[in-house]
Write a sequence for this structure.
DNA sequence: ATCTTTCCCACCTAGGTGTGAACC
DNA sequence: ATGGTTCACACCTAGGTGGGAAAG
């Protein structure tokens, strides 16, 4: 699979083009990952992301800042999640161990940021969030979008503006999210446009149906607002909660 | 102002083009209003819509079904709300009375459905909802979009994909929502494209900062799920609620 | 005085969390 | 037995209601 290893964090892959494009427009995009410190804390422990039948959001969230875009050109921003290696894992003796060869991957799909296309100026004004993308292990999911390999025509697929989309992963397998930036006026031209791909190693994770490493669980509880109900200290000072002593 | 009076409900205005367009594509769109019976109940009493500083959604919601579109052509769907007449109103002796000449209107803005552009096939598959549009009386609102008159270039404005948009109205004035359908591949071509406009008289309303007609209030409470807390019968059977005897 | 607007509130809907027991 | 998956649930965030007091 790999090909994204060795790509410097925040720098486009070697496979992407030089800043001078055929249309004569110049840009030199830089992309940074939001909450990098938090991502690092998870990464050091071995990030886990829960996948459920109905789809689960990622935490931390995939959020980026872009700079160096041509303000007047239009860009399409995308995210996908690809297998990080060919292994299947198990959590044994408080450690992730290789447990064999990977199961077959479902065809991966590109998640187009729902604000696409927008001008460089618009993208640079705000944080670009892909937090609405959900992860599932449900093979019979219908929220399809077009394939990562772009072999099928994008017009045959759709994604509603609410940005609801689901990607199918294998539990106990390792994955690597990738951020893509394309200068293109039109989604129809996407398959023929040059992609710039950015990989942040610290966003790598293992998909699970239930958390394996309790330190990961605790880090999620400590930082995800929706899990505040499971915190021991501070916020929920009104009662001792239901946690059994 | 008028020009939409006399337009048959669900039929395009006389000002719109014949089904045969210059590109040779044929279509004969029909548009119907969702929850027509509910809208009629409000209309018979004199519909009121609350406007607030931060913006308030409409209830009933603006939802439509489209048919007769060309499945493969792309369409942009829009909504706007225009003054229904030149008067200012007051509610006196349980009746709406004319109270003078209208105050000046703020420039009106087009609300582009966030799924736009999409194919006729896609639009016809589902109900088209504009429920995220909010009404305000706050002059210093910044959620601008391009003018209804399309005199300004749409590229100067933006609307994020979450569909959050606000329109500024005058309290105690009467308004008429309008639905627009445009066959166009590109939002940039919108100002030069032919609009088909559909007006449903039963969606007319008077903007208020507080409900005037208590029958309208009760109809809202009875049908808006978010107002369930104010219902007397049925749903909230666990207690008698806080309503003073 | 009368009418209109503003603000905070309790009460909802809608949906994102990990839990722990049940299931396979 | 062991390990992975599913499900209902309590507990949150986020935000849409009209009420009622206060303000303009």
């Amino acid at each position: 699979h790999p090909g994204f290893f060795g790509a410097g964090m925040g720098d486009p892959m070697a496979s992407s083009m030089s800043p001078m494009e055929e249309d004569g427009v110049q840009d030199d995009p830089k992309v940074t990952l939001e909450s990098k410190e938090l991502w690092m804390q998870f990464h050091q422990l071995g990030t886990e992301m829960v996948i459920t039948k109905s789809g689960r959001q990622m935490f931390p969230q995939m959020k980026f800042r872009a700079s160096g875009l041509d303000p007047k050109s239009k860009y399409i921003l995308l995210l996908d999640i690809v297998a990080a290696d060919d292994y299947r894992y198990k959590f044994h003796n408080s450690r992730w161990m290789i447990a064999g060869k990977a199961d077959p991957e479902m065809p991966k799909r590109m998640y187009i940021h729902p604000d696409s296309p927008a001008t460089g100026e618009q993208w640079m004004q705000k944080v670009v969030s892909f937090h609405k993308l959900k992860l599932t292990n449900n093979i019979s999911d219908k929220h399809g979008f077009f394939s990562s390999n772009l072999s099928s025509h994008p017009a045959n697929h759709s994604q509603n503006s609410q940005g609801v989309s689901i990607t199918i992963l294998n539990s106990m397998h390792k994955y690597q999210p990738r951020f893509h930036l394309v200068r293109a006026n039109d989604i129809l031209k996407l398959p023929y446009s040059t992609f710039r791909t950015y990989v942040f190693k610290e966003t790598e994770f293992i998909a699970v149906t239930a958390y394996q490493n309790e330190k990961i669980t605790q880090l999620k509880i400590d930082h995800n607002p929706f899990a505040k109900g499971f915190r021991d200290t501070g916020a929920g000072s009104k009662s001792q909660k239901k946690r059994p002593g």
Remarks:
- Residues 180 and 197 of chain A are 4 Å apart (CA to CA).
- The two ends of chain A are 47 Å apart (CA to CA).
- Residues 1-20, 144-158, 234-245 of chain A have pLDDT under 50 and may be disordered.
